[in-house]
């Protein structure tokens, strides 16, 4: 669940009860990220891993924690929490509505996160499609959100396959480079 809400603390228990397996909140929306991360961990349900765009469902585990930052937030602001989360989400549009233009100038944030935290899942959300996914994957994203590019396509399946393949190939290349 990507919670684009002003008080993410109040939604942890309801989302866990509803069966959410991941709870991603915006760093800017809380005054105490550490306490919220702890609360999310304590309210765990099934766990999931989206490594290389392949969903796997382990049996039972903790609720995974994702931490999102808006385009105007410095990536270094997320760094103190990186070792306590499962996924960092870099917004490449201003939150609020779909169909916005991809903000390529957010890719240095993705690259910085990948170099500082090589095993962290890094997701990009906003304006991602066939023309922009390469930039995300090359910068270090191993997870993407793509809504409009898929839904507006005449062949959604081929778009999904392209997005998956680009992310997978980039992740394989990174692992060979290590």
From TrEMBL:
Gene3D superfamilies hit by this protein: Aldolase class I
Please give the InterPro entries that the UniProt record associates with this protein: Aldolase_TIM (IPR013785), Ribul_P_3_epim-like (IPR000056), RibuloseP-bd_barrel (IPR011060)
State which pathway it belongs to: Carbohydrate degradation
Q: Which domain of life is it from?
A: Eukaryota
Q: Which reaction does it catalyse?
A: D-ribulose 5-phosphate = D-xylulose 5-phosphate
EC number(s) per entry: 5.1.3.1
This entry's Gene Ontology molecular function terms read: D-ribulose-phosphate 3-epimerase activity; metal ion binding
Instruction: Please name the GO terms of the biological process aspect recorded for this protein, alphabetically.
Output: carbohydrate metabolic process; pentose-phosphate shunt
Tell me the enzyme class: isomerase
Q: Which Pfam families match?
A: Ribul_P_3_epim
Q: Which UniProt keywords apply?
A: Carbohydrate metabolism, Cobalt, Iron, Isomerase, Manganese, Metal-binding, Zinc
Q: Which cofactor does it need?
A: Zn(2+); Co(2+); Mn(2+); Fe(2+)
Entry keyword Iron: yes
Spell out the CDD domains in the cross-references.
Answer: RPE
Subunit structure of this chain's protein: Homodimer.
Q: What does this protein do?
A: Catalyzes the reversible epimerization of D-ribulose 5-phosphate to D-xylulose 5-phosphate.
The record's comment on protein family reads: Belongs to the ribulose-phosphate 3-epimerase family.
User: What is this protein called in UniProt?
Assistant: ribulose-phosphate 3-epimerase
Identify the species of origin: Callithrix jacchus
User: What lineage does the source organism belong to?
Assistant: Eukaryota, Metazoa, Chordata, Craniata, Vertebrata
Q: Which gene encodes it?
A: RPE
């Amino acid at each position: 669940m990507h919670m684009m809400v002003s008080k993410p603390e109040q939604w942890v228990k309801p989302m866990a009860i509803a069966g959410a397996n991941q709870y991603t909140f915006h760093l800017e929306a809380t005054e105490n990220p550490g306490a919220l991360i702890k609360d999310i961990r304590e309210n765990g349900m099934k766990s999931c891993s989206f490594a290389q765009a392949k969903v796997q469902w382990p049996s039972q585990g903790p609720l995974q924690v994702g931490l999102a930052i808006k385009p105007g937030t410095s990536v270094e602001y997320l760094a103190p929490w990186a070792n306590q989360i499962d996924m960092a989400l870099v917004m490449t549009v201003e939150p609020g509505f779909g169909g916005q233009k991809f903000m390529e100038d957010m890719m240095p944030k993705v690259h910085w996160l990948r170099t500082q935290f090589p095993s962290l899942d890094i997701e990009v959300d906003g304006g991602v499609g066939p023309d922009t996914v390469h930039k995300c994957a090359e910068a270090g994203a191993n997870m993407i959100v793509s809504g409009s590019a898929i839904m507006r396509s005449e062949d959604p399946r081929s778009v999904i396959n392209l997005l998956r393949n680009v992310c997978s190939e980039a992740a394989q290349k990174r692992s060979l480079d290590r």
